[in-house]
Design goal:
globular; 5-stranded mixed β-sheet; about 160 residues; alpha/beta; Rossmann fold; single chain
C-alpha cells in the first residue's frame, strides 16, 4: 500500500563475493528493491551499491558510508534493502539505523517483509535478524576451514 507522502528513499545493495565482476547479485537485489519502492510509493533518489564487498570483515564499504552520511544529513528518509544481512552483519551498525529511525524518522523496508524501527517490537525483530546475520558471518570461516581440510584429506590441491 503506497504511503500518502513523497519520501526520499535510497536503495542499498551488497554482495560479499563477485569474483566474475558481473554485478548480477546486486542487480537482482536492486530489481526487487525497486519493485518494493514502487509498491510503497517511495521515490528512489539514489542506489548505493557495494559489490564484492563483505559486511563482516571490517573493511570500508564506500557506498554504505556515503549512504550513512546522507541519512545523517537528512537527505535520505527511507532505506530499502533486500534483507537485513545485505545491509550489515554487525549489531553495532544495526543500532545506528535504530538511532537514525528515532532521530530522523528513518523508515526501513526489506523485500522479505516489514521492519518497523519505530516500534519496540520492530526493533527487536531487526536485532534478532542482525544477530543471525552476525552468527552467519562468524560461522563462515569455520565452514571454509573444514572444507579445505576435507579437500586436503582427499589429496585434492587447493591453490591460493
Amino acid at each position: 500500500m503506497p504511503t500518502d507522502h513523497a519520501v526520499a528513499a535510497a536503495i542499498y545493495v551488497r554482495i560479499s563475493k563477485d569474483s566474475e565482476k558481473l554485478g548480477l547479485g546486486t542487480a537482482r537485489q536492486r530489481k526487487d528493491c525497486e519493485e518494493l519502492a514502487r509498491e510503497k510509493g517511495w521515490t528512489v533518489v539514489e542506489v548505493f551499491k557495494d559489490d564484492d564487498t563483505s559486511a563482516s570483515n571490517g573493511k570500508a564499504r564506500p557506498a554504505y558510508q556515503r549512504m550513512a552520511r546522507g541519512i545523517e544529513a537528512g537527505q535520505i528518509q527511507d532505506i530499502i534493502v533486500w534483507d537485513v544481512d545485505r545491509l550489515t552483519r554487525t549489531p553495532r551498525e544495526l543500532e545506528d539505523f535504530i538511532d537514525w529511525a528515532d532521530q530522523h524518522k528513518l523508515q526501513f523496508a526489506k523485500t522479505g517483509g516489514v521492519v518497523d524501527l519505530a516500534t519496540p517490537h520492530g526493533r527487536m525483530n531487526a536485532r534478532v535478524k542482525g544477530a543471525v546475520a552476525r552468527d552467519e558471518a562468524d560461522q563462515q570461516p569455520r565452514r571454509q576451514k573444514r572444507k579445505l581440510l576435507r579437500l586436503a584429506e582427499e589429496d585434492k590441491y587447493v591453490g591460493p
